[in-house]
Amino acid sequence: MSSHDIHANGELPHEPERATLEGRNKLLGFWLFLGGETVLFGTLFSAFLALRNNVADGKTAQQLFELPLIALATFLLLTSSMTSVMAIQAMHRQKLKELAIWLIVTVVLGAAFLSLEIYEFYHYVHEGHKFSTSAFSTSFYSLVGFHGAHVAFGVIWIGLLIGQLFRKGLTVVTAPKVYVASLYWHFIDVVWVFIFTVVYLMGKVG
């Protein structure tokens, strides 16, 4: 970190994720990456909407989905989005311990969401709703499972960042990594809102 990366009093800038050209380039590159991810998810959503009524001999969405479980999973994931906001606010206040705590809470909530999703999939398979049961089941598992894989990646990513923060502290190098991870987490939360609406709510009401 150069002398230009800190203020005269030794503190980091208010937005350390943007304090260096490298940090700003990381943010720009990540926005481009999210654009590509949006296209991928859009394709999966389109396939699901086209195939959701092709249930063959399997169960329909109305027969299968249990909204209380999905609502709980949604609550956990949306709450984790709020805790990631709190983490970034702590980072801007240069409160390393508080930042780490909020990131840990985010990881725990994300892991809890994944646990519910795994239970959900196990229950559906037990009910005969397997990946190859019908076009509906294939498109469902492809979309929701792809999102679940993103959540799992985010949990691992943020977990590794927490370890890095404890080793290296909050610097203009680690700050952009935390900020980008937060953007990623918000992205998968927004995608889940669409999944909850398009897959579960629309499926339940027919």
What does this molecule look like?
- This protein has helices at about 20-50, 60-65, 65-90, 95-125, 135-170, 175-205.
- The chain starts with 20 loop residues before the first helix and ends with a helix.
- Helix content is about 75%, strand content about 0%.
- The longest helix is centred in the C-terminal third of the chain and has 34 residues, at about 135-170.
- Mean pLDDT is about 90; it is low at about 1-10.
- InterPro entries: Cyt_c/ubiquinol_Oxase_su3 (IPR024791), Cyt_c_oxidase-like_su3 (IPR000298), Cyt_c_oxidase_su3-like_sf (IPR035973), Cyt_c_oxidase_su3_a-hlx (IPR013833), Ubiquinol_oxase_su3_dom (IPR033946).
Secondary structure class reads mainly alpha
Task: Specify the number of helices.
Answer: 6
- Extended strand count: 0
Note poorly predicted spans. Answer: 1-10
Tertiary shape: elongated
**Roughly how many Å is the radius of gyration?**
20 Å
The proportion of strand residues reads under 5%
- Assign a percent range to the helix content: over 70%
> What pattern of helices and strands is seen along the backbone?
HHHHHH
The biggest sheet, with number of strands, parallel, antiparallel or mixed sense and barrel status, is: none
